[in-house]
Amino acid sequence: MTALLTILLAFFQLAPSSQNTRCFLCHGKESFGVTEQGQFRSLFVSPREFAASIHGKFTCVQCHVDVKVIPHFIRPQKISCLQCHFEGNTAGAPVKWMPERYKESVHAKALEAGNPNAPDCETCHTTHYVKSPTDSTSTTYRKNVPELCGRCHKKQFEAYSKSIHYKALESGVLGAAVCTDCHHEHDVLPPSDPRSSLSPEGVVRTCAKCHSDTLLMEKSDVPVQQPQAYSESFHGIALENGMVKAANCTSCHGHHDILPASNPSSPINPKNLPKTCGKCHPNADQNVAKGKVHIIPGEKSAGVVYYVYTFFKWFTLIVLVFLFVHIILDISGYVRRKYARHE
Amino acid sequence: MRDTSRDDKKLDDLTEAVIREVEADENVKLDEEFRSGLKEELVQKVRQHLEAKRKLEEIRKNKEAKAREENFPRFGLNFRLQHLTLAIGVIILIITGLPIKFHDSVVSKLFFEITGGITVSRIIHRIGATLLIIVSIWHILYITASKTGRNDFKQLIPTPKDLKDFLQNMKYLLGLSKEKPRYGRFSYIEKFDYWAVYWGMVIMILSGLLLWFNNFFLGLVPKFVLDVATEVHSDEAMLATLAIVVWHWYNVHFNPEVFPFNATIFTGKISKEKMIKDHPLEYEQMKSRSREMHADEK
Question: Which of A234, A241, A276, A308 to mutate: most B Cβ within 10 Å?
Answer without folding.
Answer: A241
